[in-house]
User: Fold Toluene monooxygenase system ferredoxin subunit from Pseudonocardia endophytica.
Amino acid sequence: MTAVSQGSWQPAGAADDVWEGEMTFQQLGDGTSVLLVNTDGAVRAFHGLCPHQENSLEDADFDGEIITCLAHMWEFDARSGAGVNPTTTCLPEYPVEIRDGELYVHTSSAPPEKEAGPE
Ligand code: FES
Assistant:
């Protein structure tokens, strides 16, 4: 069995598949789950687990500006990952590159820490 390497560039599909104002959830090759969000003409990759109680954000709501975790309705700004409600949290963001029309996400070697906030 091959060891999973973290902290490397992971392919995440065609850039054209993430349209302006859309969000998709993906499990990358190294096991990291990410939200791919296209806002303001740029695709961003955020950690795919909510910092509140680490629920998957696969079914999160997205209105073009705000990502909402449906478990307890925490909200995050899709341009920065900053917490909107509550403001004391954030979605960790991973670097994204587009190479020959394909998205690559650089996953970090250390998983983002769970953050404190209102229950
Ligand atoms: S797990 Fe996302 S708001 Fe609670």
About this structure: Confidence is low (pLDDT under 50) at residues 1-5. The first strand starts at residue 9 and ends at 14. The domain at 8-107 is CATH 2.102.10.10 (Rieske Iron-sulfur Protein).
